[in-house]
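Practice record 12: protein with zinc ion.
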Amino acid sequence: MGNRVLALFLIAALSLAAHARDRILRSVKTGYDRLILRYDRPMLPSEVRTLLLRNAKTLRYVFDFRHTRLAGPDLLRSVRYHAPVRSIRLAQYRPHTVRLVVETAEPYAVAHYAIPKNGYVVALPKGSSSVRSLFAGIKTLPVGRKKAHPAHVVYHAGRTVRAKPKARLICTPYAHLKKRYTVVIDPGHGGHDSGALDPSHRYQEKRAVLAIARKVARHLKRMGFRVLMTRSSDRFIKLHRRTRYANFKHADIFVSIHANAVGNLRRASTARGVETYYLSPARSARARRVAAKENSIAFRKYYRESMNVYLQTLTRSKIVYSNMLALDVQSHILKELRKHYKGVVDGGVRPAPFWVLVGAEMPAILVETGYITHPSEKRRLYDPRYQDLLARGIAEGIARFLANRERELE
Ligand SMILES: [Zn+2]
């Protein structure tokens, strides 16, 4: 009898110990064509076993998360999806294994990878879940050619049209936007991270971009937007927290504001101009260089791999919306600045792999407002009037983008 009690005690203790090692799956949410799982500890791709079960009519993509337990019975309650996904199921398949099953009608490119803060992403088929209802109505949009898009190319649902230059300017007046949209403005860097510096260190990126961001917020509020800022003072915020904040606040638009720099002093007198970037796998050496500069803080190898996988899963529609937003913002910045300033250089709209844009569930762009290493442009970046015109251009570009999207859905 004593032995049996001891044996039972041992079994109980062992199973408790085994349970203590399991991680807990706490929540499941839908992002832009992705499921986002959150654990109490990091989940590693090596702990996930995948399986594809198919019959004549359906495909079942199975993900077994080992050493994992469910926090509760109803983790899928906020998960929304539509075709081509038929169903999503989650269960404690074995005592230490959680099974996720995504059932679809057609095959799709599955990807799964870790993200910061104990997160784990499982990609869903394109178009199966879009968080922003405004953007859910439009299904496929062309990404276009691999080259940077000229500003006079207009996008409509399903096709790219080369328009007469004025055609873009006809749209719903901003005052008539149907919804009160939320815009998150993200002034780059802050605190111990001063961002780009001129050789004298008198001009700092973090200060110029905060001043510009405040003015963007003021213009947007005047136009009726709900505006939130990732920082409104000189403090440091980690890159991944910035988009996470935007997701958490259900923002419709995310705009990160930066200033550029060149390391080579000889190039400092020639490198200038405004550039707007959207997230995409890097293409040009120049875009990669700018991204590397902005990415350098807290950019660990572990996340770099996740970033590469993430970039491969970016949906076409997501890239296109950010691209369109970038085009609208860039053209309005130039329009405003050129009203009062000469020699404003159009650096163009470019795709680049910026870490700060990764994970944003809404159209997201990064504006490089000018070069802090250029002798006259750095002064302009500190000039309140120049800042104000820049800010007005960004705000007008955002409004134009949203008005055009509303018009497409009519
Ligand atoms: Zn920056």
